[in-house]
Amino acid sequence: MSIASQASEITLPAVTNYTTVYDFLCAKFPFITPQVWQQRIADGKVHWHDGEPITEQTGYMPSKRLCYYREVEAEPVVPFAHRILYQDKHFLVADKPHFLPVTPGGQYVNECLLARLKKQTGITDLVPLHRLDRDTAGLVLFSINPASRADYCQLFSLQKITKQYQAVAKLTASIEQQLLRQSLPLQWQIKNRIEKATPKFINHIVKGEANSESDIQLAAKCDNKGLFCLTPVTGKTHQLRLHMLSLGMPILNDIYYPELQPKGPPQFDAPLQLLAKKLAFIDPITGQKQSFSSSFQLSEW
Fold this sequence. Notes:
alpha+beta; Structural Genomics Hypothetical 15.5 Kd Protein In mrcA-pckA Intergenic Region, Chain A; Pseudouridine synthase; 3 domains; 11-stranded mixed β-sheet; 3-stranded antiparallel β-sheet; 6 helices; globular
């Protein structure tokens, strides 16, 4: 059994019909049995934000913050190291390996980038300002200082940060023919609408007003593979994977697209060929330009 070293937090919805906190937890997390919640509550693993424990009879309190400790029977171990590339009193830039989630979720409790960094730095109030898929490697920006956190959050909400990715994919026959007539780079601007699909953890492209945009460039070619530079303008889930798929060139080793693969253990020898390579922005506190580049390389290139 692996138990989270840090509590997860949830704010109870303002409007519900729940009588007790226990009722809410059972409904909110249907894949966790009522007996498990009963045991966690009895063991003191569920409490209010101020540390006061709850019981099965504790009344539901709208908008109050609740803490609980996630548990999994067997947590996978990711055998790759992360790296801290930069740290000051306001933010930290980490380089995440493939297969490591940014935050706890699913089977992952302590084996995530956030938990690793908290343990390494001793900083408990560390907050990721954006996300990378577990399958994607590269740069993640974290806030250290609550006083300046909103300033760095706005870099993303106001699209004042530049993110550039690298990807490797097999070239289509038509692209290879085009390269006989035209030199590199080749460029595309992709705009389309992305919505949730089934199962709910994947997305798909549908008709309608565009809500996603990426600039894609084929930067280099080796045999039948290409190295692509991808600059997302928006930040929809799996946007870059879907936009490469829309060009007929899905990213190598993608277990979601074009076809969802059966669930199984991580294939550490075949990582998704997608890397968050660069981050650049004007520091909202100092006014200085900040630019970072991942130290990782894509294995298929």
